């Protein structure tokens, strides 16, 4: 019986030790797909929009390239980089504009950002 508990404890300890390193960094989460498309948008007032939001696209390239396609279809391209320990993104657009937004939530399928005092949450999926 003692051997059984000793073996169980060893297996459990090895299992717990291997579980801790699976979290992705924010860079890995943003760049894991060529492009993201919105499935649902939640606005600060709680309103949710799921109609035609799949036209909204984000692309964060691992080499620093950036593109954003809003509902208007006017594509914004430029470069991006993290600041503040992967919690703030700085974007320089090709037409000379710059902006920052803060990530308040980032998972495999959710990107919640704050910009100019407004928080918007995007439920995302890889774009086709």
Topology readout:
Elements: H1 2-19, H2 26-31, E1 36-42, E2 48-49, E3 57-60, E4 65-69, E5 76-83, E6 88-93, E7 98-106, E8 110-115, E9 118-126
Antiparallel strand pairs: 1-2, 1-3, 1-9, 3-4, 4-5, 5-6, 6-7, 7-8, 8-9
Characterise this structure:
By secondary structure, the chain is of the alpha+beta class. It has a single domain, classed as Beta Barrel (Lipocalin). It is built from 2 helices and 9 strands; from the N terminus they run H-H-E-E-E-E-E-E-E-E-E. An 8-stranded antiparallel barrel has the order 1-3-4-5-6-7-8-9. 9% of the residues are buried. Residues 1-18 have low confidence and may be disordered.
CATH architecture: Beta Barrel
Helix content: 10-25%
For the residues shown, what is the average pLDDT? Answer: 84
Order of strands in the sheet with the most strands? 1-3-4-5-6-7-8-9
* C-alpha end-to-end distance: 55 Å
Q: How can the largest sheet be summarized?
A: 8 strands, antiparallel, barrel
| H-E order | HHEEEEEEEEE
When the domains are counted, the total is: 1
Please outline what is shown here:
This protein has 128 residues and is α+β, with helices and mostly antiparallel strands. The protein has two helices and nine strands; from the N terminus they run ααβββββββββ.
């Amino acid at each position: 019986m003692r051997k059984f508990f000793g073996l169980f404890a060893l297996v459990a300890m090895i299992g717990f030790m291997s579980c801790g390193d699976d979290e992705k960094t924010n860079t890995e989460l943003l760049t894991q797909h060529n492009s993201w498309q919105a499935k649902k948008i939640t606005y600060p007032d709680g309103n949710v929009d799921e109609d035609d939001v799949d036209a909204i696209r984000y692309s964060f390239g691992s080499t620093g390239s950036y593109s954003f396609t809003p509902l208007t279809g006017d594509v914004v391209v430029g470069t991006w980089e993290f600041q503040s320990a992967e919690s703030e993104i700085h974007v320089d657009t090709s037409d000379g504009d710059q902006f920052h937004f803060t990530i308040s939530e980032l998972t495999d399928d959710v990107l919640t950002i704050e910009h100019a005092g407004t928080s918007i949450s995007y439920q995302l999926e890889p774009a086709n």
